[in-house]
Automatic annotation (TrEMBL):
UniProt cross-references to HAMAP family, sorted A to Z: HisC_aminotrans_2
PROSITE patterns: AA_TRANSFER_CLASS_2
Record EC number: 2.6.1.9
The name this protein goes by in its record: Histidinol-phosphate aminotransferase
Cofactor(s) named in the record: pyridoxal 5'-phosphate
Enzyme class: transferase
Entry keyword set: Amino-acid biosynthesis, Aminotransferase, Histidine biosynthesis, Pyridoxal phosphate, Transferase
Gene Ontology MF term list: histidinol-phosphate transaminase activity; pyridoxal phosphate binding
């Protein structure tokens, strides 16, 4: 437990004093037969389903269903337009432009830095170690009185490995700012989610997504889990209707498919191991980072030329060879068995 954490001391003054916008659906909750409060079109929509009414601004039904799956009470949950919305809200709530700073641990997900730049927040980078773990001494040295956020991606993108849980707990106990753990790929990992530690750490925010294992990337639904107080801050500053009704309806339907998702996860993990074992037989492959995600980071000879060749073959991977500590590497998403076989055949053809 971080006993010295003080949420109010972290909040920007204008956010602490903010009176949030009150929408029509905030002012009246319940059922009615005549809706004349929100200036909506009363005739319906030119679609098979009517979308003329504003959606539930706090997505109560969807959160209730997600709560059963995630094992997290709905009041500890925020739903955003992708995880990117939650990342942006963290900056807007806690970081004063040109005053505060955040700590990133490259190589990591690039949107943390982009969002910092958009919000005019200084970024302090403390590179991961050569085995892609936290440099605790470096992080401790980088923290000052204006450090408000620290982002940790685990399993990490683009490396695929999980970050040592004890190291994360060390930071949670000793850092008085917000520790953000991005668990976008947690479904593929043997490591437990930090959602189990929410009651223990008031400075913990966990990001998850339905874009990966759940196969709903096009619907743009991200999840954030945190204390009730932090969730209340998110709800205070988010756009009134940030999750549209079509997304809410489709996700509610998709959440009935837990068994299918679990089978897909098992299949992906199995294919990941097959892909790794076959890549390891190639002489041109110098290193494969152990992965807890649905992708692998592969260091090999001539990565940029291989990438260009794969593009010519209609096979798209991610060139990470210019990323810090990922020199010479391609990031390869685990596909279906036929897709992986086609990839391996193309790589072998290129090197032969």
């Amino acid at each position: 437990m971080n006993m010295s954490f003080n949420l109010n001391a972290l909040l920007r003054d204008n956010i602490r004093k903010l009176v949030p916008y009150s929408s029509a659906r905030d002012e009246f909750k319940g059922e009615a037969s005549v809706w004349l409060d929100a200036n909506e079109n009363p005739f319906g929509s030119p679609l098979p389903h009517d979308y003329n009414r504003y959606p539930d601004p706090l997505q109560h039904q969807l959160k209730h269903k997600l709560s059963k799956i995630k094992g997290v009470p709905a009041e500890h949950m925020f739903l955003g337009n992708g995880s990117d919305e939650a990342i942006d809200l963290l900056y807007r709530a806690f970081c004063t432009p040109q005053v505060d700073n955040v700590i990133l641990v490259p190589p990591t997900y690039g949107m943390y830095e982009v969002s910092a730049n958009i919000n005019d927040i200084a970024v302090r980078k403390v590179n991961l170690t050569n085995d892609y773990q936290l440099n605790l001494d470096g992080i401790a040295e980088a923290i000052d009185q204006h450090t408000k956020l620290l982002f940790i991606c685990s399993p990490n993108n683009p490396t695929g490995n999980s970050i040592n849980a004890q190291d994360i707990e060390t930071i949670l106990v000793n850092f008085n700012g917000i520790v953000v753990i991005d668990e976008a790929y947690i479904n593929y990992s043997k490591q437990k989610s930090f959602t189990q530690a929410l009651a223990e750490f008031p400075n913990l925010v966990i990001l998850q997504t339905l874009s990966k294992a759940w196969g709903l990337a096009a619907l743009r639904l991200g999840l954030a889990f945190a204390s009730k107080e932090i969730i209340e801050v998110f709800n205070k500053i988010k756009p009134p209707y940030n999750i549209n009704q079509a997304t809410q309806d489709l996700v509610l339907e998709a959440l009935d498919g837990v068994d299918i998702i679990n089978e897909w996860i098992k299949a992906t993990v199995a294919e990941r191991e097959v892909l790794v074992s076959k890549l390891a037989t190639l002489a041109q492959v110098e290193h494969i980072t152990p992965s807890d995600a649905n992708f692998v980071l592969v260091k090999l000879s001539e990565p940029r030329a291989l990438y260009a060749y794969l593009v010519e073959q209609g096979i798209i991977v991610r060139d990470r060879s210019k990323v810090t500590l990922c020199e010479g590497c391609l990031r390869i998403t685990v596909g279906t068995k036929p897709e992986n076989e086609r990839l391996l055949e193309a790589i072998q053809t290129f090197y032969n």
